[in-house]
Amino acid sequence: MNYKNKFPIFSNIENHYLDTAATSQKPKVVLDKIREYYEKYNGNPGRGSHKLSVEAQSLLSNARECVRKFINAKRAEEVIFTKNTTESINLVAYTYGMNFISENDEIILGISNHHANIVPWQFVAKQKKAKLKYIYLTENGQFDLEDLKSKISDRTKIVAISAVVNVTGVIQPIKEIIEIAHSKNALVLVDAAQSMLHFKHDVQELDADFLVFSGHKIFAPMGIGVMYGKKEILDKMPPFLYGGDMIEFVTEQESTFAQLPNKFEGGTQNVEGAVTLEEAIKFICEIGYEKIEKIEENLANKALEELNKLDFVETYFTKDVERTGVIAFNVIGVHSHDVAFILDSFDVAVRSGHHCAQPLMKYIGVASCCRASFSIYNDESDIQKLIEGLLKVKEVFKL
Ligand code: PMP
Fold first, then answer.
1. For labelling, which of 64, 182, 187, 322 has a CA lying 20 to 30 Å from the CA of 175?
2. Which PANTHER family match (predicted)?
């Protein structure tokens, strides 16, 4: 059983969508919610005493509470709405990084981080004359805890890592990383962009200092994201975007700032995004992570079995390691963009290129690759079409 019929796009177009890791398709309940929000409730939250404004404010609060429960944050005000993971990481880099990291301090990153969790830290390191250190991988593609233990020091201020590697789907040992970092009083930012759809995150159990993710990768629309931070840390950080709604008092020369969460939510918020993120979270919870994982695992295993039969295809980090339903692969001797182009002519959507992870690609010595990612709307027909497309690649390139 899969959930294809819950996603209207598949009754409108023919597509074997294997690119959920880039962005998920949207279920009908989420699409309906967008319309319902604008048809019944639209107002600017926190900016008026009329019914629609008050209603929008209360919808925003409900959505915040829903996210709080979803990640088990202690307090709703620890949940800050942003545009996406990238903005969430920039928020932490600009406010925590630029104020609490000094010359010769260290920022530790995973070599398999997405650019969104590298480039903001390069900016901070340059501005503050801090050092960037990278943690490399074990043979099976996992973050190397021994490497972390040998590189972390009393000067390490933050360790920023992905919970799941976007290129390979390898699940990283987040809990252990956090324990090691905390033993040196370093904070940890968990980039959950690739993990949120696949397993439960409990920020209190993990003891994560920051945890960020994008709505669009978990069945919600584009333009809504989350930055979770522990209250005691967020309270110390200055605001990020200055303007309306994030202030307490403004005089000609000075301003004082609002309490959390408003301090970090300058300007009109994406209420539609928050409300539909809530709907997407409810949708995920109704299905349950157990079922989601099972579907992905079955499909990825089946696909891997089929790919392994093709001697002109190689896969990366698919053995002896815990993964989400993602497979990184190449047709040997053919550029990934050419492969993806031919697959697209079979209506098979895969991502190709460097996947915004150039340091990882350089480290593993693979210039580019294709990535097939499976979700609850996929089935075996998608795998069959993928294989058919790859056989066509073999034929076209006379392999
Ligand atoms: N981190 C990871 C691990 C990702 O996979 C992505 C998206 N590919 C991002 C960050 C950036 O997400 P967004 O583009 O939604 O900001």
1. 64
2. CYSTEINE DESULFURASE, CYSTEINE DESULFURASE 1, CHLOROPLASTIC
ipTM for the complex shown? 0.99
Distance between CA 392 and CA 38 in Å, rounded?
46
Residue 40: what residue type? K
Instruction: Please tell me whether residues 92 and 230 are part of one structural domain.
Output: yes
Pocket flag, ligand 1, residue 168 (CB < 6 Å): no
pLDDT tens digits along 340-354: 999 999 999 999 999
Ligand 1 mutation pick, 90, 194, 351, 360, max ligand atoms within 8 A of CB: 194
Give 305-332 pLDDT, tens digit per residue: 999 999 999 999 999 999 999 999 999 9
Q: pTM for the complete prediction?
A: 0.98
pLDDT tens for each residue of 102-123: 999 999 999 999 999 999 999 9
- Which residues does residue 190 pair with via DSSP β-bridges, in sequence order? 161, 211
Residue 141 is part of which domain span?
30-285
Give dist(CA 201, CA 163) in Å, integer: 10
Catalytic residues: 356
CATH number at residue 166: 3.40.640.10
CA 185 to chain centre: 25
pLDDT, average across residues 366-394: 98
- Mean pLDDT for 237-266 is 96
Together in a domain, 174 and 322:
no
Whole-angstrom distance, CA of residue 129 vs CA of residue 116: 20
Last residue of a domain, one of 229, 261, 285: 285
How high does pLDDT run on average in the chain? 97
Q: Which atom belonging to ligand 1 lies closest to the Cα atom of 165?
A: 3
- What is the distance between the alpha carbons of residues 197 and 223, in angstroms, rounded to a whole number? 17
Nearest CA to ligand 1 atom 6: 193
